Amino acid sequence: MRDFSKRLAYLRESPTRKIDALRERLKREGKDVIILSAGQPSIPPPLEVRQKMAELLQEESMELYGYTPSQGIYELREAISEDLRRLGGLDVSPDHIVVTAGGQAAMFSTLASILEPGDEVILFDPTYFGYKPLLEYFGARVVRLRTSLEEGYQPSVERLKELVSPKTKAVIIVSPDNPTGRLISPDSAKAIADLAIDNDIWLITDEAYKTMIYEGEHVYLYKLAPENVISINTFSKDPAIPGWRLGYVYGPKEAVSRIKLVNEEMVYCPPSFAQKMVAIYLRSDIRMKYVKDFIAAYRARRDAAVDALKRYVPEGKFKVPQGSMFIFVDLSSYIDDGEAFAQKLLQEYSVALVPGNYFSEVYKAAVRISFVAEKTERLIEGIRRIGEALVAYR
Amino acid sequence: MRDFSKRLAYLRESPTRKIDALRERLKREGKDVIILSAGQPSIPPPLEVRQKMAELLQEESMELYGYTPSQGIYELREAISEDLRRLGGLDVSPDHIVVTAGGQAAMFSTLASILEPGDEVILFDPTYFGYKPLLEYFGARVVRLRTSLEEGYQPSVERLKELVSPKTKAVIIVSPDNPTGRLISPDSAKAIADLAIDNDIWLITDEAYKTMIYEGEHVYLYKLAPENVISINTFSKDPAIPGWRLGYVYGPKEAVSRIKLVNEEMVYCPPSFAQKMVAIYLRSDIRMKYVKDFIAAYRARRDAAVDALKRYVPEGKFKVPQGSMFIFVDLSSYIDDGEAFAQKLLQEYSVALVPGNYFSEVYKAAVRISFVAEKTERLIEGIRRIGEALVAYR
Fold it and tell me: Which residue of B20, B67, B261 is in closest CB contact with A243?
């Protein structure tokens, strides 16, 4: 019978992809849409590094085109090891790192490696929408740990303890968080690490935005529980190559070797051109200057967005993000249904954003605003239109 | 419990990756190894196309770096559609094409999309070793259809009929074949297509080597059974970017939409840089000239390898490959165990090849020789050493 796998029912088209499709249709119709939906930087990778890659493209050899080891080229894993030491004082050897075809492949292969049907996995609410469909696809049960704006989206460790059961396989912690921009506090981190060690559960830490921090400091949970932490990372945000698909996982060797095996079966090896470029970038003199520059640029946009929200959406409630690319705004004083509002906003006001129900079962009247995809003027205009639409919609 | 998925037991490190690791160790020890193991071209992509990409790298925009649609950029899917028309007179619209992060991702996502535990899938013997672990990982039972050197590795349609059961989900056909270089004959193709239609089963056609043909013509099974065929393709061989990870699947729309969904969850989108390059390549004036040139170069090497085999390995039995990169040589007149021989050959004679038991449960005394990875002189020297080792080993 030419039928299909039933498990596919758990996979859904990514909500941001749906918005992208609608956005592109509007663009074809000649509409100029202000993009506050995309989690994609607008500052390209450093020119020096791109020029070096351009030179390599002229060479008459297969060096740049051939397969690489499935775990990633050693030069890049070494550069990542050095980078983790520089950024957080971490001691992670290249053997404990597997390079992947992006953060999504890091997530997919990590979950494929650890999950058995029936496992429970604790996921914060709100948090990144990418985990739930994968968890369900691999047969795990999603257990939600509610966090709230009032508590600055910090997890309550008491509530977390209550949710842990003998079936708990892992807790997933996105920090800096998408969509709230919250950093896990050092106290929360310590308590969660202790709980993971005591209960022998995995901590999956999603560190996609670890160099995109405006105030405060990133806590590396790996330092607190090196045997329990599997860390998901991406080069999509820093150095801004989302389309090139490169990320990595670090963690205990027995986990990394299995994740490597799954990646080998999924994609054979990570893209070689991107690997070479990132190896050059991480070891270049400008690596930390590039970070400093994009942080300054995105912080200025964040501040402009915060000011615009106070002015145009005065009853919107949000926590000023300490990191990431997003402001998560609770619009429950204006509306009930963020998804219906987002659709109306896109169609009638040509502003794209992502509704809160993609991240939360609670904050359904919220929206996620990206402040990195558009330049300041258009960002402010987008928020002005949100205010206008809210008044009209109320 | 910090344990791992039991299904991982079905995944094994790719045998060629194991050989790569050993090879690299020998290289570090200063040994110059002749590589007859790698299924990797030695002629890089056209310089004109690489130069165009080098120019694009200088542009100060996110165009080249951003996410693409999960299905692949439209420009590339259109170029693939045109290419399929040019190559085989196929009528495949861009909607029926999904671009993937390489042939491996095409295989993984296709099998993830169609398989249920308990399904039976018919796999030729010998054939490419990449399918069996994936089939078992997804819970399918592998049913082997034996083919033989005496019959030119053409499948017997009578035997195939006997293997089809109500549980048969798919037949996998690699043509040009890896490792035998056999092309499916038009008669076999027609009979298999009819059988698939009559029994309502999927035909997975692996067309990785479809432009790498020295004699004869590639049969597109899609033309014979468009509702049954899901075709796996790669740009690793043509235009020689194995490390860049780009491939595609074409087939019925309801299959392609599901395969797209799985790829979105696996890797979000295929690598954008590679997509752009291949779109330019496929639409360039030199596309067919590049194919003509590499075929001429690789045909000359194939012929040199055939001559060398006749001279140095006179009792080796093989079919001269009509396509692909490989000669599959039955060494049963000399040895019993191709794997032990391959190990000895690598360690004592510094020649790497792949033993037959990776492809076959029958041809265990065979070896696969790649004739594209090394230039002619070293290729001949490698085969001379094989002959020398066989005499010593016998």
Answer: B67
* B185-214 residue pLDDT tens: 999 999 999 999 999 999 999 999 999 999
**Both tokens assigned to A273:** 């051109």
ipTM for the assembly = 0.96
Rounded to whole angstroms, what are the CA distances from A16 to A285, A353, A371, B70? 35, 9, 16, 11
In CATH terms, the fold of domain A66-282 is Aspartate Aminotransferase; domain 2 (3.40.640)
Neighbours of B59 (CB within 10 A): 12
Determine, for residues A67 and B40 on separate chains, whether the beta-carbon distance falls below 8 Å. yes
pLDDT tens track for A35-47: 999 889 999 999 9
Query: What class, spelled out in words, does domain B65-282 have in CATH?
Result: alpha beta
Are B267 and A266 a contacting pair at CB < 8 A?
Answer: yes
Chain B closest-CA separation from residue A315 CA (Å): 34
**Nearest CA among B58, B177, B366 for reference residue A47:** B58
Q: Of A116, A241, A244, which has the smallest distance from its Cβ to B6's Cβ?
A: A116
- How high is the pLDDT of residue B23? 74
Is some CB atom of chain A closer than 8 A to the CB atom of B257?
Answer: no
Per the CB < 8 Å rule, is B62 touching A47?
Answer: no
CB pair distance less than 8 Å for B67 and A271: no
Q: Which fold has domain A6-45+288-393?
A: Aspartate Aminotransferase, domain 1 (3.90.1150)
- The chain B residue lying nearest A238, using CA atoms, is B65
Whole-angstrom distance, CA of residue A132 vs CA of residue A136: 6
Element (H, E) at A311: helix A287-312
Instruction: DSSP for A197-236, please give it.
Output: HHHT-EEEEE-TTTT-BSSS----HHHH-TTTEEEEEESS
Q: Where are the domains of chain B?
A: 6-45+288-393, 65-282
Tell me how far apart the alpha carbons of residues A171 and A121 are, in angstroms, rounded to a whole number.
Answer: 6
Task: Report the pLDDT averaged over residues B324-339.
Answer: 97
CB atoms within 10 A of CB B377: 9
| Nearest CB partner across the interface for B67, out of A40, A112, A228 | A40
Residue B39 CA to residue B192 CA, distance in Å, equals 27
Amino acid B177 reads D
Number of Cβ within a 10 Å radius of residue B112: 25
Quick check: A24 pLDDT over 80? no
Instruction: Report the distance separating Cα B304 and Cα B302, nearest Å.
Output: 5
- Residues B394, B334 contacting (CB under 8 angstroms): yes
In B, minimum Cα distance to A4 occurs at B114
The tokens of B201 are what? Answer: 């089963």
Terminal-residue alpha carbon distance, chain A: 52
The two beta strands, B141-146 and B120-125, are parallel
A62/B70 touch (CB, cutoff 8 Å), yes or no: no
3-class secondary structure, A174 = strand
In DSSP terms, A203 is beta-bridged to A171, A229
Peptide bond into B176 cis (omega under 30): yes
Neighbours of A286 (CB within 10 A): 15
Same fold, A6-45+288-393 and A66-282: no
pLDDT tens, position by position, A128-178: 999 999 999 999 999 999 999 999 999 999 999 999 999 999 999 999 999
Q: Which residues contact B193 (CB under 8 A, 6 or more apart)?
A: B203, B221, B224, B225, B228, B229
CA distance linking residue A290 with residue B306, whole number of Å: 55
The SS3 assignment for B280 reads helix
Mean pLDDT of chain A: 96
Query: Does A225 touch chain B if contact means CB atoms closer than 8 Å?
Result: no
- Bridge partners (DSSP) of residue B125 are B146
- Contact list in A for residue B258 (CB cut-off 8 A) is 4-5, 8
